[in-house]
Amino acid sequence: MKGWMGKIRALFLLSSLALILSGCGRENLTAFLPKGYGAEVSLNLIIISLAVMIFVFIVVMIIYTVVLVKYRRKKGQEDYIPKQTEGNKALEIIWTVIPILLLVIIAVPTVSATFDLADESEKEDTLNIKVTGNQYWWHFSYEDEEIQTSQDLYIPVGKRIYLNMVSSDVLHSFWVPSITGKMDTNPENENTMYIEAYEEGVYWGKCAELCGPSHSLMDFKIVAVSEEEYNQWVTDMQNFDAEAVPETASAQEGQELFQNNCISCHALGSSPVAVAPNLTDFGNRTKIAGVLDFDKETLVGWISNPEEFKEGNKMTNAEYLKNGSLSEEEISKIADYLLQLKPTTITPESATN
Amino acid sequence: MSTTIAQNRSFGAALWDYLTTVDHKKIGILYLVSGGFFFLLGGLEAMAIRIQLIKPANDFVSAGFYNQILTMHGTTMIFLAAMPLIFALMNAVVPLQIGARDVAFPFLNALGFWLFLAGGLILNASWFLGGAPDAGWTAYAPLSTTSPGHGVDFYVLGLQISGAGTLIAGINFLVTIVNMRAPGMTYMRMPLFTWTTFVVSALILFAFPALTVGLFLLMFDRLFGSGFFDASMGGNSVIWEHLFWIFGHPEVYILILPAFGVFSEILPVFSKKRLFGYTAMVFATVLIGFLGFMVWAHHMFTVGLGPAANSIFAVATMAIAVPTGIKIFNWLFTLWGGNITINTAMLYSLSFIPTFTIGGMTGVMLAAAAADYQFHDTYFVVAHFHYVIVGGVVFGIFAGLHYWWPRMFGKILDEKLGKLTFWTFFIGFHLTFFIQHFLGLMGMPRRYWTFLPDQGLDTGNLISTIGAFLMAFGTIVFVINVIVTSVKGEKVGGDPWDGRTLEWAIANPTPHYNFKQTPLVRGLDAFWIEKMDGRKEMTPAEPVDDIHMPNSSILPFIMALGLFIAGFGFIYQVDNSAWLAAVFIGMGILLGCMFIRSVKDDHGYHIHKEDLDKGAGL
Amino acid sequence: MSNDTLNPKVMPEEPEKATLEGKNKFLGFWFFLGGETVLFASLFGTFLALRNSTNGGPSSQELFGLDLVFIMTMLLLTSSLTSVVAIYQMKKNNFAKMQAWLAITVILGFGFLSLEIYEFYEYITLEDFTFRSSAFGSAFYTLVGFHGGHVLFGLLWILTLMIRNAKRGLNLYNAPKFYVASLYWHFIDVVWVFIFTVVYLMGVI
């Protein structure tokens, strides 16, 4: 008897210890510390349902423990045959009715929260952004502002923003745990959801629907900045000039190489081309391809052999890689050009209070 | 006399015996061996997954290969391990529990097994032929329709063929339970395992055709250029999700209900008490089965079906917690006041209760649609369904195997090794999966090949992997146990556990014809009633007479072989139309066998009553 | 089972359910048809979801005419009726008449199938409407084709039974076989009624 209760206790101690060690996860990624409306609504519902369920679990475990302590076979009673109880009407009614009541406690807030998160009454009056999921990157189109960007989604803090989401290829799912729950992007219809960030910050987003080999490498970010900073960002992005001449000679040559080799897929500025990520504010990003360290060496490596970093990505099929038409030196120049694309002073670093 | 013949039989004769058998007991063993093999295979795949995730940014396997492993782990465990192992128990036990000499359709029973095996082999052949399917066991379009190579084609054909086998098995058990019960075995006297088999067979009957259609559409899209799931042709990929989950959700209950049945057999026997609230248990089973068809869209809360649909499916899903709760409390009160013996079978059954309660709790939490926006497709879901499928189904299978092993093989599995397996498997299981609830909410989506450092996910994944190794250790010990027991174990009598139901009323080993005289059933726990009245055997319902038995046949095996050949033809005809020949040959074999089966009379044979006393058919 | 028990002097009222094997077959086949219902329901659901997804190709309004389909419906409905008569004759132990009515059923069935093939041929050659034209095309040919495949299988099955048992007449071993074959035939007929309504009638409106 001792042995097996002891083992269970040890098990629970071990698990809870592990939990304390790992905490609740990274602050800008975990769903446990909501920083946005959707995440907060979901977490409240999680807590309500968890509380009810823990109550049920405790009841079950009390009966369970009593049973195991009291009714184990005892010495000298090996042949004892207990009373063959058929059932008990009163008890059976109790454990049918009480769970129904408990479920109502969960069901009511569930329905109300579900309708709340699908509310579209303010959609016409506020910022709408079109989100497109691609293998393996995210594209964001601010249609009214005529801004195109990829990977980093800049939003003003404290404001409800509608995301209209589609996919260009297979299913993806847009998930930023600390801001909101997820919504799938489908190729055949547009799904709408709204987000609202409570605090300025950079929030990690992930793809949550298996979409191919590099499904786990499809990270993106929501950059929530103040209203003024956001307006500044919009103005800067709108004023972006793709023809502007970079400062260094290397970057200037890189610009020409970029125009000749990359522009048919990667757009700059408000060009609607979205075969590959829009690179307008590339220099302000904190990750290359969503997951790689942001430095020149990595960038050159990525441009030279994207397959090594993200299996199955479409850049592998690019002309310059098939022909081998770009030398390492040339790729380095392109990297120089890309790294100086900083059309705005509003960067992820601005996202602090 | 017959034993000497049996010992002298050559290996070839034994092989032929199993290839042609229509005996439910032998088919049960066939299911057990092949299901067990696939379980080990699926476990190997699970270990590869956990090793890959032992640390951040690991590259134990490549990203593309990882997707193949995770797809095959899910597909194998559900279709090729859990289902056949459950069928093994059903075949071994259900005809005995209802006092029948065989199932209703012995020929189809064999056919069902061989089709399952053919499908499983096709699916796994993909490993050696250019790569396994890589679109997840759910095979969501358009990822599955656009996945390069032949991997997903193997998934489609393999599942289609093994699914046909499952459907056949389902119909067989339905008719067996309706028509073949012994006199006095009314519906409300049937053991719970038979009841769950009955409900599960009905679920199979009404759920699998949706998968059949889904797989056909996927096959047409991939191999014949149709546009069901292709948005550029006006198709709609959400149709696949609906079809898949209309099948897929009942499938979950197809797996768990037989496990419920197993526990409902074991708990009364080892607490020496009648099952508490039998009637409620039966109705709860039926209700769970029925509601199982109403809730499929709770797998699709984030697809964008709208708040009304999400709310309806959320509430319907929560409703299932009520009959499930009834079952939990009935099990607890079966134990209450009992005289409880704890052996290995009982350890699994007892640990099932808290484990499954946790799985049920997270199930209700997942049903809350707006909360599911966070849970969906994360490790929280992975944790949830492993708590119900491992904590429910696998514990149930282990419990059932320990409990019925003496019925199937005449020996009791070694208790020491059994307990070692249990404790390592149980502790390993909770280590692996409990932490995953938290990993999910901390931002780890499921089906992730890797995770980045500094995201707070390292410790949890490491613990999870350690747990997985413990589970693997437990499983290996179980295999050793099986070997040790078959070599060294001692034969036991027909009723080693002081059982309550009819399968224990037979001597060991079970005769070919099960019951020399069909027993007369006088109530629930038929054998227990007789024992309480001081008898050692069942009261016969008929005098000793000739026993009619079905003929063995090689046709089921050949039919499955035909489909196996045709399957490869379908897959490769897109590359080279010469492969169409394989389609025609394979389908020709299948139809030819059906033709032979139709025109050739098969009346079976009789064991004469004079021979019964001499031990014929043992 | 001995020959005497399978060939009783007086045939029972319901020869298809007189033996345990017959009862099993009877019940099992009903269950099978339950599964088939879900199969066709899934196909109907898919068709309904995709019936307007013509992708620029021909639509149902442009394609379908009711004349031919009406004749097909009549053929199949009549064949269902004749198979009822055949089973009625079986229960009266009138083997020759049963065979005759089954023969009429088969002829009507082949008539239906020929018209269906003609219909498909017209769509493909004249209207350029194929399985690969659009999601609607895929759904149409799959649903109607699955039904057509069932018709073909049913015809071959009934023919096989007729020829196999032509010489030896009715007994308790083959009565269930005839009976479930006719059940299958009714099922196909019912499915067609739904196809006529959902695909063709709703398609021309």
Describe this structure in words.
Chain B: It is found in: Cell membrane. Chain B: This is Cytochrome c oxidase subunit 1. By secondary structure, chain A is of the alpha+beta class. Among the domains of chain A are: 2-73 and 85-117, Helix Hairpins (Orthogonal Bundle), CATH 1.10.287; 249-350, Immunoglobulin-like, CATH 2.60.40. In chain A, 39% of the residues lie in helices and 18% in strands. In chain A, the strands form 3 sheets. Chain A has a 5-stranded mixed beta sheet. Chain B has a single domain (2-537), classed as Cytochrome C Oxidase, Chain A. With 618 residues, chain B is mostly helical. Mean pLDDT of chain B is 94; it is low at 1-6. Helices cover 67% and strands 1% of the residues of chain B. Chain B has a two-stranded antiparallel sheet with strand order 1-2. Chain B has 21 helices and 2 strands. By secondary structure, chain C is mostly helical. Chain C has one domain (18-51, 65-204): Up-down Bundle (Four Helix Bundle (Hemerythrin (Met), subunit A)), CATH 1.20.120. Chain C contains 7 helices and no strands. Chain C has helices at residues 3-6, 20-50, 60-63, 66-91, 95-126, 135-164, 175-204. Chain C starts with a helix and ends with a helix. The model of chain C has no long low-confidence stretch (mean pLDDT 93). The chains are: A alpha+beta (353), B mainly alpha (618), C mainly alpha (205). At the A-B interface, helix 1, helix 2, helix 3, strand 7 and strand 9 of A face helix 4, helix 10, helix 11, helix 12 and helix 13 of B.
